[in-house]
Amino acid sequence: MGNENLSDNVVNDVYYNVGSEGYDASDKSVVISQTTNMGQITDATPGSSEVKENFNGLILKVAAGKGTIMVNVKTTGNAQLVVQVGNQTPMIASKTEQGDVVVSYDVAEDTYVYIYAIIGSSAAPAHRAAPADAVKIYSIKVTPGATGIDTIKDSRSSVDDYYTLDGRKLQGQPTKKGVYIVNGKKVVVK
Length: 190
Fold this sequence. Notes:
Elements: E1 9-11, E2 14-17, E3 23-24, E4 29-32, H1 49-54, E5 57-62, E6 65-76, E7 79-85, E8 91-93, E9 99-107, E10 111-119, E11 134-144, E12 162-163, E13 178-182, E14 185-189
Antiparallel strand pairs: 1-2, 2-5, 3-4, 4-11, 5-10, 6-9, 6-11, 7-8, 7-10, 12-13, 13-14
């Protein structure tokens, strides 16, 4: 990013509305220093007058399905990062050191994701935060696809392999009494 206008502008498929002071060239971060009251934004789309006037932050769209959104962020002062997928309950986080915040999503249709700041747990109307209160975003990564383990596969073979104590593999189960190795353990066959 250079000196792009980050007020009501789209850069790399992300809608920015963070004001003229929304980019910190010293650490290459997008700075959200004004809060947003999402109660004023109901199903608003990027670029609408409702968003231009009441929303400070970033908006991106995720495709239908499951996935994760990873935001590399640092919060200062009393500011907190908010990541809200559509009209779902927002995820709120603070990171006093730069680090990743990961949010999982599972949506039935293409959905907007709102990334913005609040001060403390306040849902007050949008206002300019104190100079020390800000959310600094360094990167955002959306990873579509499964977000967890869907199935657990047993790595053991379905048929136990039997070996003699001297390491010879038997064809099937042993027919004689003795000590054998099965799945790395000694087994006595009587």
